[in-house]
Amino acid sequence: MNWNSCERQIEAIIFAAGEPIELSRIAQALDLEENVVRHCIHRIRERYLEHQSPFDLAILDDAVQMCTLPEYGDVIRSALELRRTAPLSQAALEVLSVIAYNQPVTRSFVEQVRGVDCSSIVRSLVEKGLIEEAGRLNIPGRPIAYRTSPGFLRSFGLTGLEQLPNLPDDAEEEDPQEPEQLEGQMDFFEL
Amino acid sequence: MNWNSCERQIEAIIFAAGEPIELSRIAQALDLEENVVRHCIHRIRERYLEHQSPFDLAILDDAVQMCTLPEYGDVIRSALELRRTAPLSQAALEVLSVIAYNQPVTRSFVEQVRGVDCSSIVRSLVEKGLIEEAGRLNIPGRPIAYRTSPGFLRSFGLTGLEQLPNLPDDAEEEDPQEPEQLEGQMDFFEL
Amino acid sequence: MSMETLNFTVAQYEAPLDLILHLISKHKLDILDIDISSLLEQYLETIESWKTQNLEVASDFLEMASRLVYIKTVSLLPRHEEEHEKLRQDLTGQLIEYSICKQAAKTLGSVYIGQDIFVREPAPIEFDPAYTLTHPAGVLLAALADAMGKGARRLPPPREAFEPLINRPIVSVTAKIFTVLRALRTDGRVKVDRLYRMNTDRSGMIATFLALLELIKSGKVALYHDQVELTFPHQNLEEPNS
Questions:
Q1: Interface of C with B in 5-34 (CB under 8 A)
Q2: Which candidate from B115, B140, B157 shows the least CB-CB separation from C94?
Q3: C152 in A contact zone (CB under 8 Å)
Q4: Is C223 helix (H, G, I), strand (E, B) or coil?
Q5: Helices (H), C12-152
Q6: Which chain C residues contact residue B168 at CB under 8 A?
Q7: Taking the CB of residue A155, how many other CB atoms lie within 10 A of it?
Q8: What is the per-residue pLDDT across C58-111, written as a single tens digit (0 to 9) for each?
Q9: Residue ranges of the domains in chain B?
């Protein structure tokens, strides 16, 4: 294996690791001496510098991590922040509304209503500060219950949950064909 | 800002984003035309190729993501002590292709084509990040529609859906014996 | 035979359609003009052989067997050529569609590189992930309606929604028979239209229709005046008032 090919492989490993990775692990995977790995990393850093690459390899103790140079911090932050402010997807809105109108509810309640896995959506709504954990329900498995947060009220211009738009249930009571939905809900709580 | 400096900043943003990032957001953050961003990405990729870099920028529709080249898969796996993931099963590939070629489609459309229940496969494809929810179809029941995700494009080495391999039915369309399939599909959407 | 080989045998076929495609190519049947009798024979033989090997036969495969039996039965009935042809064409269409799906899966599978490409996690940049956009609260209600499938309330609901209820008689046909007879006793003759209009929902209409069929078949009532009016049979002889 020549120097170049070693360097490429080391670069690929450090990139994919994301987190700092021990030089010993890289050495083992490539069947190289740790010193050789260290030397390759040195060469890669020189090349980055020479090519004015925005990347660098940061050596921390016996581990190495790929990162961007500090001067790119601002431009990265502004691009990624823009990315974070994407509007809620239809799926996220649905999960949010099921939680808002039924809180506190478990994730599996939401999944039962929507008929699909909602774990990643629930996670991202928690991250966005739109919902929060509300303890655990006292039913088998003690699942986490979720409720909307103050951030939710802010985003939808409400001062309290009582301001949520009314469900059109008055109109529905006259229609004897519609009780299915409510039954399904009760079944769930009676589980 | 000169070309070089643009390229470095774009590289830094794409690297830090990790996930696919829309070209429009990069353009907005750098106050550039989207076309300029596209051109820079093209130049970066050429440079990677020329320098035999282990990296590539995967174009996924209107987004871009930094990734390693497939030939580094084995060495990365061994350094990160990752098991080789099981290849997609025949069933998963079938579901994926029905979705890829007909998107957005509901689960029941997929089940109609395959003649068997596909709920667990659909769920696992969502978990693997190969498909995602695409809102609801405007047909009775308002079922959830699915589409392929940017991860799908990346995993199959495509830059957009227009690159999907041609299906044999393109050739058969001249055959008057074949309208069943189209009829079946329309029936479904007209339900 | 070891367990592994056994499992392999069944896993060979993703679905009943897959097995049929296999049988069609193995026995050189014409997919555009399927000989249902021989296909059924091959199909049942395969299932039997699985059973003798103590393999679990998934219900999907049994369902397909009964479908094939049904198509064959229809073919034996006199004056059912059209229906038979339709059933056969449906099957052909489905098979062609599925074989295209299989081919697409194979093509896609051959270019799959997902397991060899690595990306990295987003850089852990410290910024407030809190959601900052604002929306009118009304979108929540619309989203809730979608989540609960209520957006479609005026349209027929999806079949799954009613699965728990499907075995519950919604409107009894017997009750409708009484309703029809009562209306006839009161008025002597009744427009069929009016009987339908007495219902507000589909299941009521269907029950009324079934009740009418039942009554007409047993000769208790008769259709009259171009089949738009219903009377008791003896009234057939009388002239209408007009």
A1: 14-17, 32
A2: B115
A3: no
A4: strand
A5: 16-26, 36-52, 59-76, 81-110, 138-147
A6: 100, 103
A7: 22
A8: 888 888 998 999 988 888 888 888 888 888 888 998 898 899 999 999 999 998
A9: 3-71, 90-165
pLDDT for B50 equals: 93
Encoded tokens for A182: 């409510």
- The string of pLDDT tens digits covering residues B50-108 is 999 999 999 998 999 999 999 999 999 999 888 877 788 999 999 999 999 998 999 99
* Chain B environment of A72 (Cβ under 8 Å): 8-9, 12-13, 16
Give residue B37's pLDDT band: very low, low, confident or very high (50, 70, 90): very high
C20, C62, C120, C154: best to mutate for the B interface, most B CBs within 10 A? C120
Report the C-alpha gap between C115 and B8 in whole angstroms.
28
CATH 1.10.10.10 assigned to domain A3-71? The reply is: yes
Enumerate residues 6+ apart whose C-beta is below 8 A from C200: none
CATH of A90-165, one of 3.30.10.20, 1.10.10.1100, 1.20.1440.230, 1.10.10.10: 1.10.10.10
For residue B142, report the phi and psi dihedrals to the nearest 5 degrees.
40, 60
- Do residue A116 and residue B127 have CB atoms under 8 angstroms apart? no
> Is the pLDDT assigned to residue A191 strictly greater than 50?
no
**Cβ-contact A74, B8 below 8 angstroms:** no
**Cβ count near C182 (within 10 Å):** 11
The two domains B3-71 and B90-165 share their CATH topology (first three levels equal): yes
Interface test with B, best of C92, C98, C106, C119 (most B CBs within 10 A): C119
C-beta atoms of A97 and C140 within 8 A? yes
Helix, strand or coil, per DSSP, at residue A55: strand
CB C91 within 8 A of CB C71: yes
The strand ranges marked E within B101-184 are 105-106, 131-136, 144-148
In angstroms, what separates the C-alpha of C215 from chain A's closest C-alpha?
Answer: 28
Are B135 and A91 within 8 A, CB to CB? Answer: yes
ipTM for the complex? 0.76
- Angle of CA points A172, A175, A180, to nearest 5°: 80
Q: How many helices (H) and strands (E) does chain B have?
A: 10, 6
> Cα(B28)–Cα(A79) distance, rounded to whole angstroms?
8
Tens of pLDDT, residues C102-139: 999 999 999 898 888 899 888 777 667 788 888 988 88
Task: Count interface pairs A-C at CB distance under 8 A.
Answer: 102
Shortest Cα distance, chain C CAs vs residue B123, angstroms: 17
C-alpha–C-alpha distance, residues C169 and C154, integer Å: 21
